Sequence to fold (462 residues):
Amino acid sequence: MSKKTVRLWAIWRRIQYGAGFFSFWGLVGVLIFYINFYQPANCFDLVMNGNETGIDCGGSCVRICAAGVSSPQVVWTESFKITEGQYNAVAYIENKNQIAATPELNYKFQLLNNGIVVAERSGTTVLPPNSSYPIFEGKILTDSRQEVTETKIILEPVDMWIPATVGYSQFRSQDIKLSSSDFKPRLDVKLENTELTPANNVEVVATIFNESGRPVTASKTFTERIEARSSKDLVFTWPSPIAKTVKSCEIPTDVMIGIDVSGSMNNDGDNPPQPITDVIGAASRFVNSLKEKDQVSVVTFATRAETITRLTNLHGAVANAVQALSISPVEEHGFTNTSDALTTAQTELNSERHNQDARRVLVILTDGLPTESGDEDAVAKAITVATELNENGIEVYAIGLGKNVDQTFIKAIASDESNAYFAPTGNDLEAIYKEITTSLCEVGPTKIDVIAKTKTNFTPLR
Fold:
């Protein structure tokens, strides 16, 4: 063998030894790295790997990629005044996704007065799938001098979408009963968990809507646990009366009818005297149009006010008492003590005869401005007392009779300008009383939504 061949063979042996040496230690290094540092593809490494269709989402990951999910939509937002400077805010949020839900939906309520934010409240809630769900924030404080004219909710983009095994259909509300609506409102509900698994930390919101579908008030409660296939009795309360707000015919009405019997009420002459005869006929028919559970009382006023009948549901007897009314000759030169009538009506509507399930209403008719003996400003006094009635939760309907009646005064004593009516003649009263009858309650049952949501049904991350 030549020296050249020996030399080449030696070089080749060295290469083989070196390659083997480095291969061995390379494998050792790889093994050490694998044991100590290697992490297999998973759903929490902030890297799109494995069979993921997005970063840590899709594929075998529990999390659902946001790109394939419809964003939550605000259905409506509203705030409800509880007391001066205090509001409850509610929003309905729709999740159109069939299974995608989020355990962390961040939001911010904004309460505005003519475009200026007067209060904010932020929070986090769950959003189950395939329906609309309420978000509720209570006791939001504002400057009592600034009424809330608009309410907004801002939703932050959802970071985590995960499957939920069940949504809206899990809970079913039964035996809904609203009581004490003009005292300490209370809503009793039996909430059933229809699933085979218990529900923990359940948030439940009750919202009451009027006939046109507009929300008028809401309340929230919590329950720690509802066992599988079982129900639980829940109670919702409000700190202030809601009878004046919820105008369902299911809520009865206590009505006080105020009738001006001052001397001017027979100035149109005729036999029988007018316009008082037309007033008596229209008022008595109004009494008979009230519903069975409604109570009614009558107060007349001239120089002083007098309660003719106390609150009762014996409508026929009250209608007969109205038919028997007449103007005393003494009142031909007397006064029109409107403030006394308002005070007397308030006393009766606040008496022990008042049905605490009923709203309180005063329907007062007069043909002129208030007058009283002495130097006191009778007009200002009557307006002040009417304002007190409204603040006390008594809704005032005011009817001005005659072509020359002071419309500014009638509007001032009515709870709202829409509650002020004007009858140029006695013939116009029939239609006005019918309109007030319709306004007292909305035909059809009160719609009460009771919606529950819980984190129990979210698929756990793994």
